[in-house]
Amino acid sequence: MSLMRYITPALDQMFMDSLEWVDRTYILKHQSDDPKTLRAMYYPNLKMYSVHGDTSRRRAPLNAALAFLTRFGRRAAISLAVYMLSYLPVVGRLVLPAASFYTFNQAVGPIPATIIFGSSLVLHKKYLVIFLSSYFSSRSLMRELLEPYFSRVHFTKEQKRLWFRDREGLLFGFGVGFYLFLKIPLLGVLIYGIAEASTAYLITKITDPPPSPAYNERFAETQVRWTNKHEFLRLPLGNLDANNTETRSPKQTSISSQTPPGKKFS
Predict the structure, then answer these.
(1) Which residues, 6 or more positions from 263, have their beta carbon under 8 angstroms from its beta carbon?
(2) pTM higher than 0.90, yes or no?
């Protein structure tokens, strides 16, 4: 299914249609509120962005598909190499724990990574492989689900890396559930569509509403850090829109003095 987005625009259109529905639902839900306290819309401006962001970087569908296959082939080769090294005598039993420590030290810090490393020393290799496979697969899934957003809002490679790292815990929790359902035969195809549609809603919680393309020069730079992370994660599930009606935080940087009004909350 991930490869299909490079062949047909159906998944991209599903993301945008879902984003439009999220905006409409938000307006209906808060129609009795003061309009000045509501956030700006996502869909109207985002639909004006080029699907390929910077058109000078545009790649033909075949080249994009080949890049996708190359990327996943490289990951598969690294995973296979690590797994084969785990069968080496003496040091083999330390390969997977070391790989897990290296991975999670970058993602969650040294203390959780050390706990995972210690646990992996006593767990059977099969369970450690399942755990690492689920982690990397869910991370790859999230990158594919977010492609409709990143294909429009252009981030540099470093900005994109920091964007994912600042939201890694939430993205893992969001993606691993869908990853497990995707493994169900036949049903998995339908779940992928639901995951793509759900990602449109997720975007409205972890990013700011995009400005008009004419004023987007510094927008990607302002989105690297999720400035409202802790406040959002403390919200009850039934009130996830609470931060959407807050006034702009003094810590947040204005995108442009000409940017249309709208509340920021990421």
Answers:
(1) 37, 38, 39, 40, 244, 245, 246, 247, 248
(2) no
